Amino acid sequence: MNRRTVIWIAVAAAVLLIAGFALWWFVLRSDAPDPVSLDEAVVAAGGSTTMAGEPADSGAGDSAVEGDWVVAADGRSFVGYRVDEQLAGIGAVTAAGRTTGVTGGLTIEAGTVTSVTIVADLTGLRSDDSRRDGALRRQALETDTYPEATFTLAEPIPLPGNAADGTAFSVDAVGDLEIHGVTRRVTIPLEAQLVGDAIAVVGSLEIEFADYDIDPPSAVIVLSVEDRGIMEFQLVFARG
Fold this sequence. Notes:
It contains 3 helices and 12 strands. The protein has helices at 3-28, 38-45, 130-138, and strands at residues 67-71, 78-87, 91-99, 102-109, 112-121, 148-153, 157-158, 169-179, 182-195, 198-208, 222-225, 228-239. The protein has an 8-stranded antiparallel β-barrel with strand order 1-4-5-6-8-9-10-12.
């Protein structure tokens, strides 16, 4: 093999490598944000996480957590979705969209969360593709017809004894979730932490579309969509 042939092979290999990277970067690479995490929520709330199980000096009845809290109306809270898709010419991707149009609040009395109401404005859902966002107005969630999703707590949530000390903890929230005009009783695993004068909460729940009369969206580029998706949220509460 002569020198010129070797050079041409090397050039061709470099071109293929660059083309492959460009294909991954511009087409195959997913721009979906990472799943919600308590670490990120705590940073958004203005603090840092601590390990569950650290020694506690006072109980959850401490005034640090007692009272009324409202969702901070400053963009730190969001509700979103994650759904796996198969796209023509691209392959498997994770579609993810979020809305910061979240309102509501919670009440803590005697170390127990006694009420929670959260309302999400689904017309504000935004992903990395405006075409997908537009389709959700008319298909799937049909946000033109069903603009809001709500969660209302149905059972009190006892808090762990060290919740008032800024220690991260996990609890389950049992309540009524309304999406697409359908209400169902659900249990949502939550992670939370008191962060100074705020409470950071994250959670996620698998949603079967059929349970909420949601038909998967269709488009020329969409070969298939999973029959279920993930609802996820990050909530930062401030004193009410």
